[in-house]
Design a protein that fits this description.
alpha/beta; Elongation Factor Tu (Ef-tu), domain 3; 7-stranded mixed sheet; Rossmann fold; 5 helices; 2 domains; 4-stranded antiparallel sheet
Length: 259
């Protein structure tokens, strides 16, 4: 592990040195992590790849952005640079990026921001006009609004909301998102966040006939489709259930039902 820096309230940004396999990673994919020698909790924890670390043009590692929510993440938060980390990945299905898309909206709430700096870096490499990219970021309070300076640095439009009004607009981030969709229909809407938020985004994409991809936050035990514990309800009879670890965690909004 290269670093483990605190970011906001209970959140950390951890860097890993890992040049095997990470060069082929796609934004939206994830890795499974645990400290080397760790026996409790037994299972690895899944984290989105937040960003790759480059030395010139060579990729030498990656970052995760995580929030302390239980025993596993608390152990990670207490770890220090130089400690050994057991990493499995990259895993899963990432975001599809289409160079023909001009107007792109991003929607996330709190730690749901984690996969998106990697995706934005790929957009920059592909020559996207970032002035046509709009980011809608929400949180319970100002301490939950992560990566705001990173987004400003790349020139995207940034709309912030908080439940308590401590920063940005007061209220749900879905409100300014819908208002923006009414003004200017995007070519693609990318989203990540808790299920109630994603339910609203998926409903919005259907109401306005939007192309939409969502990254689903769910508990995973193995990360490889063996335990079948991360089932997501599908919309077709021939595939009534998908599994977030192998069919996702990124899905087309029209392919899943979140309850």
């Amino acid at each position: 592990m290269l670093w483990n820096h605190r970011q906001g309230s209970g959140c950390y940004r951890m860097g890993f040195q890992c040049d095997v396999g990470i060069a082929t990673a796609a934004p939206g994919q994830f890795i499974m992590v645990r400290l080397k020698g760790q026996k409790i909790p037994m299972l690895r924890r899944p984290f989105s790849i937040h960003q790759v670390i480059k030395e010139g043009t060579r990729i030498k590692g990656f970052e995760i952005l995580y929030k302390v929510v239980g025993q596993g993440t608390a152990l990670l938060a207490d770890s220090r640079a130089g400690e050994g980390i057991d990493v499995l990945g990259p895993l899963g299905r990432g975001f599809a990026l289409n160079s023909e898309h001009k107007t792109v909206f991003f929607f996330f709430f709190g730690i749901g921001v984690a996969p998106f700096m990697f995706l934005i870096s790929r957009m920059l490499e592909a020559g996207f006009d970032m002035s046509r990219v709009a980011v809608f970021l929400g949180g319970r309070s100002r301490n939950d609004l992560l990566c705001t300076e990173d987004f400003k640095a790349v020139g995207v439009s940034l709309t912030l909301t908080t439940d308590d009004g401590s920063r940005g607009q007061r209220g749900l981030v879905t409100s300014p998102l819908e208002a923006a969709v009414k003004r200017s229909r995007p070519d693609m809407l990318y989203a990540c966040g808790p299920v109630p938020m994603l339910q609203k985004v998926i409903a919005l994409s259907k109401d306005y006939d939007l192309a939409c991809q969502v990254s689903v936050e769910t508990v995973m035990a193995c990360g490889m489709g063996a335990c079948l514990g991360c089932a997501v309800e599908g919309t077709t009879a021939h595939q009534p259930y998908r599994h977030a670890c192998v069919d996702g965690p990124v899905f087309d909004a029209e392919d899943i039902i979140l309850r």
